[in-house]
Amino acid sequence: MAKGLTAEELRAEPQDELVKKLKEAKEELFNLRFQAATGQLESHGRLRTVKREIARIYTVMRERELGIVTVTEETESAEGKGDDD
């Protein structure tokens, strides 16, 4: 999973890509927690980073669900250009 995902980058992603990134982040968090429990974790800061990425993904998904933010305006305008005829 890419480090330092911003909310703006996530808003530009389609829904299925968000679901994929969420799954990957949850798997990484599980592995990090397992390493922490067994004393093998080298970077404790990565735990916090992954948790925040998961929270950002959930936030963007919820914004879309509530209609606060839709898929990027660039995508919508590109789709609308073909329908003007």
Automatic annotation (TrEMBL):
It holds the Pfam family Ribosomal_L29. One of its GO terms (cellular component) is ribosome. InterPro entries: Ribosomal_protein_uL29, Ribosomal_uL29, Ribosomal_uL29_CS, Ribosomal_uL29_sf. CDD domains: Ribosomal_L29_HIP (cd00427). Signal peptide: none annotated. SUPFAM superfamilies: Ribosomal protein L29 (L29p). Keywords: Ribonucleoprotein, Ribosomal protein. Belongs to the universal ribosomal protein uL29 family. This is Large ribosomal subunit protein uL29. It comes from Actinomadura keratinilytica.
